[in-house]
């Protein structure tokens, strides 16, 4: 037990640069593997079933985002709280959060799948399906929804493993699903002649096997954080805190769902079904670099969360700075690949010349401003990790909803299908500027005390007469931190941390 605690405690003692490398690299590998995992289905479907099938698969993206939204609300919320609790050495509370995470995943997964299966065809039409693409989208989503609980649990447990100082095990789980999916996809698609439905079966089976291993790891009683009896009953306070923090990634994924619906319908209207398929291909390519960025963010999250809980705010901000630099470098490389090697990338997914040409054109425009959005994603995740709910959710909404949809409607009406493509980088550019402004304003609230050996971050008197402000920072006044986002006012992380032990 001492060794396990020591592994967790190093988050507050080990050099931040080494910690970020230690935690981010496994997460990066895991996230790249996750993107490749999604790409495998697209490649086999595009090459083996045809262009209409890959267009049908693109129609399912909103479904996948919406399902991911509910899973992220639980997984990210729980893992963030666990990181903070471990930093505070409140191990019993962390155990109960783990148990509630499992229960919430089951409940939400079953409810989501049931509702969606009952109204599957109308939902798919709403998402942009045509008579040609509906059969493919339906066949794929029927299987995915039947295994929805497995998907939720798999991603949720991976987030828990990272929070429990097991980033390598989370990486191994993801890599396993990639390997198994790559093996099972051609088996079910070609050998068993199940087409796009076979790809969905391969996906769920791969996740199920990985999930079994995750539960085995978390059942070890010698681990600091493990599954045991008495932790699965839903506790309102814990559930509220999980959802309060998880509302941030939920909103991000839900907005992504809404945006893809608008994009798909606009592409069908102005460019036809092949334009939808082209967007799906381009999305998969860009997604690789986005996932690397997310891996960096996931590596930063336990460091920021732990040091926030331990009130080591200097180390928390150092982790953010390193993450911003790394994310910018990665997204710049992604921009270069998309601008100078688009033909090679697109050819992996299709041999259809018309679909290929549309996808190359769309990819170049879609990736036009990739170098500047890396830091936007890091900043959003930073506010989420330390509990700044309102700011985090606004930053996510700004990039995915507030700017994109108006631009999408305006530009598509003016210049047609090219307007759909141009709306994507335009909204990213505006959102990046907004994120930078929020970070600058936030940092102005604090000054780093260089005269003190502790190097804590102190809060300036921004709003001395504001009751809400003082309540939010009452736990560590005169020293400060911050908190994630939410659609409705939520308790800040400082309030969560200051709750009495009855939250356990």
Structure characterization notes:
With 504 residues, the chain is mostly helical. It has one domain (2-448). 78% of the residues lie in helices and 1% in strands. It contains 21 helices and two strands. It has helices spanning 2-9, 16-48, 51-59, 61-87, 91-118, 120-126, 134-146, 148-163, 167-191, 195-217, 236-271, 273-309, 313-340, 342-347, 353-366, 370-385, 389-402, 404-415, 417-444, 467-472, 493-497; strands spanning 446-448, 457-459. A two-stranded antiparallel ribbon has the order 1-2. Helix 4 packs antiparallel against helix 5 (91-118). The longest helix is centred in the middle third of the chain and has 37 residues, at 273-309. The radius of gyration is 22 Å and the shape is globular. The two termini are 20 Å apart. Mean pLDDT is 81; it is low at 448-504.
């Amino acid at each position: 037990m001492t060794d396990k605690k020591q592994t967790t405690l190093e988050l507050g003692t080990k050099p931040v640069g080494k910690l970020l490398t230690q935690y981010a690299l496994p997460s990066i590998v895991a996230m790249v593997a996750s993107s490749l995992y999604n790409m495998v289905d697209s490649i086999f479907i595009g090459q083996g079933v045809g262009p209409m099938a890959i267009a049908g698969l693109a129609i399912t993206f909103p479904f996948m985002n919406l399902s991911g939204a509910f899973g992220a609300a639980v997984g990210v919320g729980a893992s963030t709280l666990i990181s903070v609790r471990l930093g505070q050495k409140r191990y019993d509370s962390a155990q109960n959060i783990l148990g509630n995470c499992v229960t919430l995943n089951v409940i939400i997964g079953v409810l989501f799948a049931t509702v969606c299966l009952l109204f599957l065809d109308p939902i798919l039409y709403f998402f942009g399906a045509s008579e040609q693409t509906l059969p493919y989208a339906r066949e794929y989503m029927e299987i995915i929804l039947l295994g929805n609980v497995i998907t939720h649990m798999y991603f949720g447990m991976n987030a828990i493993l990272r929070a429990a100082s097991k980033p390598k095990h989370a990486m191994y789980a993801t890599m396993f699903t990639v390997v198994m999916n790559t093996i099972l996809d051609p088996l079910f698609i070609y050998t068993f002649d199940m087409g796009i439905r076979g790809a969905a079966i391969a996906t769920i089976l791969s996740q199920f096997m990985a999930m079994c291993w995750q539960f085995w790891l978390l059942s070890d009683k010698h681990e600091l954080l493990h599954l045991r009896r008495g932790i699965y009953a839903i506790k309102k306070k814990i559930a509220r805190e999980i959802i309060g923090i998880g509302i941030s990634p939920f909103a991000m994924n839900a907005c992504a769902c809404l945006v893809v619906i608008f994009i798909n319908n606009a592409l069908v209207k102005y460019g036809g079904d092949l334009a939808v398929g082209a967007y799906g291909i381009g999305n998969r390519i860009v997604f690789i670099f986005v996932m690397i960025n997310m891996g960096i963010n996931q590596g930063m999250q336990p460091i920021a969360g732990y040091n926030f809980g331990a009130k080591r705010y200097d180390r928390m901000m150092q982790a953010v700075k390193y993450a911003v630099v790394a994310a910018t470098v990665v997204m710049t490389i992604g921009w270069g690949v998309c601008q100078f090697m688009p033909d090679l990338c697109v050819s992996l997914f299709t041999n259809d010349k018309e679909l290929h040409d549309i996808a190359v054109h769309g990819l170049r425009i879609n990736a036009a401003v990739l170098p500047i959005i890396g830091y936007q994603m890091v900043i959003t995740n930073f506010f989420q990790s330390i509990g700044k709910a309102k700011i985090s959710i606004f930053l996510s909404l700004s990039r995915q909803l507030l700017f994109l949809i108006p631009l999408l409607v305006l530009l598509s009406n003016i210049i047609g299908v090219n307007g759909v493509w141009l709306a994507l980088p335009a909204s990213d550019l505006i959102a990046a500027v907004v994120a930078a402004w929020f970070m600058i304003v936030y940092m102005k609230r604090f000054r780093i005390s260089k005269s003190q050996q502790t190097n804590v971050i102190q809060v300036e008197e921004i709003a001395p007469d504001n009751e809400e402000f003082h309540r939010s920072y009452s736990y560590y006044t005169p020293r400060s931190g911050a908190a994630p986002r939410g659609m409705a006012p939520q308790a800040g992380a400082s309030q969560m941390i200051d709750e009495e032990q009855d939250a356990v």
